[in-house]
Amino acid sequence: MQSFEKASPIILSLLRIVTALLFMQHGLMKLVHFPAPQPGVPSPLPLLLVVAALIEVFGGALVVLGLQTRAAALICSGEMAFAYFMVHAPRSFWPGINGGDAAILFCFIFLYLVFAGPGAWSLDGRRSAVTGSARRA
């Protein structure tokens, strides 16, 4: 049990990094069609989808790096809640039918990161360690 507790900050970092990389992929698929165009997304992108894609790419990058993690995760979580209720929920009540299960998962994982923080491997953690050691000196 003790080893699970010791690994918890590392696993939190892995959850943050993998989630944010997947999130960034959605934005890159919208903006630059990498690794492929996102199915069902119109071209050219309406302004609302451009904003969503920018949040996904830049917010996701901040979360991957663990830089301003809580603020970036809050914005990403809000975007996913908005996307779910604007795009997915009108199609059906059931997420498996309306295609919104990924939006729900992203929303709640990012919301968790707002409260849990970035984990062991993050620029936020390195900054606070440097700031904390500077204060002690």
UniProtKB/TrEMBL annotation:
- Record's subcellular location: Cell membrane
* Keyword flag Membrane: yes
Instruction: Please tell me one Gene Ontology term that the record gives under cellular component.
Output: plasma membrane
**Looking at the record's lineage, which domain of life comes first?**
Bacteria
- The membrane-spanning stretches of this chain are 7-25, 45-65, 72-90, 102-123
Which InterPro entries does the record match to this protein? DoxX, DoxX-like_oxidoreductase
Q: Does the keyword Cell membrane apply?
A: yes
Print the keywords alphabetically.
Cell membrane, Membrane, Transmembrane, Transmembrane helix
Membrane topology designation:
Multi-pass membrane protein
Which protein family is named in the record?
Belongs to the DoxX family.
Q: What is this protein called?
A: DoxX family protein
Origin species: Rhodopila globiformis
* Species classification: Bacteria, Pseudomonadati, Pseudomonadota, Alphaproteobacteria, Acetobacterales
